Amino acid sequence: MPIRPLVSCVAAATLWCASTALAQQTVPMRNNTPIAPNGIVVAPLGAGPFLYHTAEGQDIRVVVHTRGLSHPWSLTWLPSGEMLVTERGGQLRIVRNGVLDPQPIAGVPMVRAAGLSGLFDVVLHPQFATNRFVYLSYNKPVTEQQQGLGVARGVWNGRALTDVRDIFVTTDANSVSRLAFGRDGKLYVSLFGNAGDGSGAQNPMSHAGKVLRLNDDGSVPSDNPFVGKAGYKPEIYTLGHRSTLGLAVHPGTGAVWENENGPNGGDEINVLKPGANYGWPLVSLGRTYPGPWQSKGFSREGFEDPVVYWTPAIAVSGMAFYTGSKLAKWTGDVFVGGMRMGEIPGTGHLERILFNPNMEELRREMLLVDLRQRIRDVRQGPDELLYLLTDQDDGAILRIEPAN
Fold first, then answer.
1. CA–CA dist 159, 84 (Å, integer)
2. The whole model's pTM is what?
3. What angle do CA 232, 220, 182 make, to 5 degrees?
């Protein structure tokens, strides 16, 4: 075999490196983050209904249930069947028989709405029928220069919230928060963990990047994992989270499941265990926005691994277990909202994940891709149908029902 001159090999390698480097386009950046492209034009949501064949043979019809919402964030149902819906701008709205009341509900605390921050989640107390308690999480203006994350509780009188007061406030975090009542009757509260370098998520004396566990009045349960442990905030249930946008209680085990956004990739679903650390920013399945991996490894002793992850990211938001029978092919599946895929605007959709009896992922399906809507929340309604919120200027509630 003839031997190539070493200098020729070096020259060829140099030429190859130069050519590949020149082949890459320069991507405009803002604050060390690539500016998202805008080549996909999202058409206004049509009148519907929209019909779909799906992978499990569950043919569905998607109905536009309600229109006219401005960036809706969360929804829940009153026992009377009316819907309460939060709007990021700071309004709590009510929907009756699919019709949005033009007047926002009175009694909502003052909200600082800026960027993606504002009014977030709304949940009812498990004993709402007797105590009428409604809970809200929101970006709270603490002073003119400082803001924080507040959890407020009010009493629903049939028309407005009364006796509203904050049961929890922190200045460690001020953006995106989900709420969920566990089977234990405790209130689980997520807090944003990606401010600055994200190190607050690993700081046990900060609420940032944590899921908290509170009594229904905001006090600390005596059996929380870090109660009485020096150097830890006693409210902390889990730590090491980035940007939690979904909390849901498993209908069988009662475990609280959490989903969170990674950076460029690395969105994940976690099963929360008391006192566990989920790794951010030390361990991640995603890349930093400029391109390098967030961490050198994807798993490390002492940190909990996710049960589901996405690379590329879909900007997960909202999560629900489907337990009904009207969409029978989907019973037991997990549904997750997605706001954009692979950092490309206009690629929002819904995802369905099928698990085996050990809650290990078997397959997943992308749904409603052609609608290109940012799906902010997904919930199962009392009628055993699925309801979605679209995070748009002219946001809507979508209802998924059997096609037949």
1. 11
2. 0.93
3. 110
